[in-house]
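Throughout our pipeline, every protein is held as a single compact record rather than as scattered files. The remainder of this section carries one protein's record, kept here as part of the documentation.

===
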Amino acid sequence: MKFRNNLPSADEVKNTNLVDYLSSLAFKPSRVSRSDYWYISPFRDERTASFKVNRSPNRWHDFGDGESGNLIDFGVLFYRRSVADFLKKIRSSFSFQQLKGQPLNEEDDSKKIKIINEKRMASLMLSRYLHKRRIPVDLTLKYCRQIDYDLYGKAYYVIALKTMPVVMYYAKKNLKRAAHQKMLL
């Protein structure tokens, strides 16, 4: 029993940031898309990245062989060891001491919707959309506002109802997306 007390707990290892752990092993992502980090698979030779780490739930998935899991599952497959042996290895590594104190789900300000401006309907694209949907102009001027906002460093504009706090409906030619809360006109 004393042997197990020297090992980090399984929860402690599972909560270690996978992206940072892979970085400590000299794996660099081929591309990053929001919270998805794509790598060349560490389990086989390949040219196109098929190994994805989603930073939000801190899980990985290898699309080449269908395997997935957390850091413990990765370590068992990568080092070809048992869970106990992997926990011993990670405890003795300096990288685990550096990584274990870092919080996983940090709120990044660039991932939040930032309201830039609220104004009377002015966008020609939104006006055309409303006309195409046969929504009378006088109703939109009375009940709707145009909200300009920033998301992931890109500027967008939406139709919002005056009576709802920051309820947005984003409409663009041939593309509809709900941002924040869905509200259909």
